Structure formats: C-alpha cells, structure tokens
Amino acid sequence: MDFKKLLLLGSVVVGMSYPTISLANSKVVNLKMSWWGGDDRHKKTLEALKLFEEKYPNIKVKGEYGGWSGWQEKVTTQIIGNTAPDVMQINWNWIYFFKRWKWIL
Fold it and tell me: What sign results for the dihedral spanned by CA atoms 64, 94, 9, 80?
C-alpha cells in the first residue's frame, strides 16, 4: 500500500472512530491506535499519524504496533480486558469472531 493510500486510510479510520473531532477542537483528545506489520508499515503509519496530528493539533494518537505473530491473541486479550485501542487494524475475518462475542460494534 503506498503512502498516500495509507495516509487516507488512517485519516478515515481515525475520523470515523471519533466523529466529534470538530466539537473537540478546544480540548486535547488522546487516542490509541494499533496495527501489525513490518518495519515499512510501521514507519509509514507513524508518518501518517504525525501528519494527522499536525492537521488536528488537539488530537494525540499513540501508536502501538508489532509483528503478525501473536497479534490476534494480543488484540483479543485487550478487547476482553477492556484495554483495546480506540482504533485498530484487524483482519477482515476477525470481525465475525469479535462480533459473535459482541466485543465490537
């Protein structure tokens, strides 16, 4: 995925996860976002988050990332423990698993 698509996707995801961004301009909002992947994906996602924060200086996004191995278990544990990130990358087929247990909307 090229950088422009990644930036657009990241902006859309964060924007969808926090629909009242325009109402929150006066206070600082802290979000946590997680994703998995290799070093190139990590670097590009962090760059996209930096650009997002420049556009929305009152929104701070803490990145949490790692490799593929064990990612589903980590995310599942966070969801069950009510410590899941505000925005996260998951595989499309995990949606059915999480929805079945009513862990996601």
Answer: negative
Please answer whether residues 42 and 71 qualify as being in contact, where contact means their C-beta atoms are separated by less than 8 angstroms.
Answer: no
Tell me how far the alpha carbon of residue 12 is from its chain's centroid. 10
Residue whose tokens read 């990130």? 85
DSSP 8-state class, residue 21: G
Best CA proximity match to 27, nearest among 36, 35, 18: 18
What 3-state class would DSSP assign to 65? strand
Q: Each residue of 40-92: pLDDT tens digit? A: 999 999 999 999 999 999 999 999 999 989 888 898 899 888 898 999 888 88
The DSSP element (H or E) to which 34 belongs, if any, is strand 29-36
- Condensed to tens digits (0 to 9), the pLDDT of residues 13-29 reads 556 555 555 555 579 99
If 0-12 CB within 10 Å is exposed, 13-18 middle and 19+ buried, where does residue 104 land? middle
- Separation of alpha carbons 96 and 22, rounded Å: 32
